[in-house]
């Protein structure tokens, strides 16, 4: 859904200020019934396929409010849960610009005529998110936007970084202190970390990194032997989505979850990017294989190379392995 959602955000950016937007999913049978003052757009997919960051991008693009209609959705409980969470977060910050509700559900107001009796609301136009209207002046390049402008790709961060950036833009710094609700990002600890880097490579959002401090040339490029360095495993909560792939794939089984990051902490790191330390240890580059390994002595070989030098014609079985009976 990134394509239509991105196109919709670019379209919103070229609309007059104060646009009250209403979006419905493809499953809705009749979105033409509703508040005529709102601009309603039908998405080409279910709301469960629309990320919260894509909806917030409509607000940062210039929409005054966004109403996400859940009536007509076949999977109501799961399709809008992620959107409702963000809507509650904005409301708690005093920015109630996103609403997720069943317009025609229980408690919704009925349309009435001047005599107090019910009346059928007039139908309203429903726009297609895939084929959004463009002003005639814009088609000829005389307006603010053209079809080429709306179709042009926009370079932007993705995933949790985009969600955090959108929230940081919508919620002023003076309203973030009370947002102690847990974000998706998890706090990590790693007592006994060996700086192998498996978790860094496994992270799908690049939330983890290894940094090296000390020596004459403490660079990220560790292929050059600069002697013992303090190696730190760092986490960027802004990029973490809490998938726990790093924990599952840790070969030493030492990476653990110690808690959750609050949204107030995450948003503060959007304005001033800084990573949180997970573990720190002294490492040295192996003189034989050039891999970095934890060390507390003057050894120049990593444990694997040291074993191979002492046992050039032998193999070592994994811990806990039992040879089958012959």
UniProtKB/TrEMBL annotation:
Superkingdom per UniProt: Bacteria
Residue ranges constituting the 4Fe-4S ferredoxin-type domain according to the UniProt record: 184-213, 231-260
Keyword tRNA processing appears in the UniProt entry: no
Stretch list, region Disordered: 101-125
Keyword Iron: yes
Keywords (A to Z) from UniProt: 4Fe-4S, Iron, Iron-sulfur, Metal-binding
Pfam annotation, one family: Fer4_7
InterPro entries with a match to the protein in the record: 4Fe4S_Fe-S-bd, 4Fe4S_Fe_S_CS, Fe-S_Ferredoxin
Gene3D superfamilies per the UniProt record, alphabetical: 3.30.70.20
GO molecular function: 4 iron, 4 sulfur cluster binding; metal ion binding
Name by which UniProt lists this protein: 4Fe-4S dicluster protein
Organism: Sanguibacter antarcticus
């Amino acid at each position: 859904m990134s394509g239509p959602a991105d196109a919709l955000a670019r379209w919103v950016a070229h609309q007059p200020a104060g646009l009250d937007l209403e979006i419905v999913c493809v499953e809705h049978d009749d979105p033409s019934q509703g508040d005529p003052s709102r601009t309603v757009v039908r998405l080409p997919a279910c709301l469960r396929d629309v990320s919260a960051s894509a909806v917030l991008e409509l607000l940062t693009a210039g929409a005054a409010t966004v109403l996400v209609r859940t009536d007509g959705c076949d999977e109501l409980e799961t399709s809008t849960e992620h959107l409702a969470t963000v809507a509650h977060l904005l409301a708690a910050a005093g920015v109630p610009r996103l609403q997720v509700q069943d317009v025609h559900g229980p408690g919704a107001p009925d349309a009435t005529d001047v005599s107090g009796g019910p009346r059928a609301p007039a139908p309203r136009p429903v726009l297609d998110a895939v084929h959004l209207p463009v002003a005639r002046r814009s088609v000829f390049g005389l307006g603010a936007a053209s079809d080429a402008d709306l179709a042009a790709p926009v370079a932007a961060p993705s995933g949790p970084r985009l969600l955090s950036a959108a929230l940081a833009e919508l919620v002023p710094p003076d309203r973030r202190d009370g947002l102690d609700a847990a974000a998706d990002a998890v706090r990590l600890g790693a007592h006994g970390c060996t700086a192998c880097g498996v978790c860094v490579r496994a992270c799908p959002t690049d939330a983890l990194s290894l940094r090296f401090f000390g020596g004459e040339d403490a660079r990220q490029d560790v292929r050059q032997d600069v002697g013992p360095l303090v190696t730190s495993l760092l986490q960027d909560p802004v990029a973490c989505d809490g998938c726990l792939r790093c924990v599952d794939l840790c070969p030493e089984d030492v990476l653990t979850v110690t808690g959750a990051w609050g949204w107030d902490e995450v948003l503060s790191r959007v304005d001033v990017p800084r990573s949180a330390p997970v573990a720190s240890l002294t490492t040295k580059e192996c003189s034989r294989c050039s891999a970095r390994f934890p060390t507390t002595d003057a050894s120049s070989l990593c444990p694997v190379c040291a074993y191979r030098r002492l046992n050039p014609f032998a193999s070592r079985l994994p811990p806990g392995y039992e040879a089958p009976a012959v």
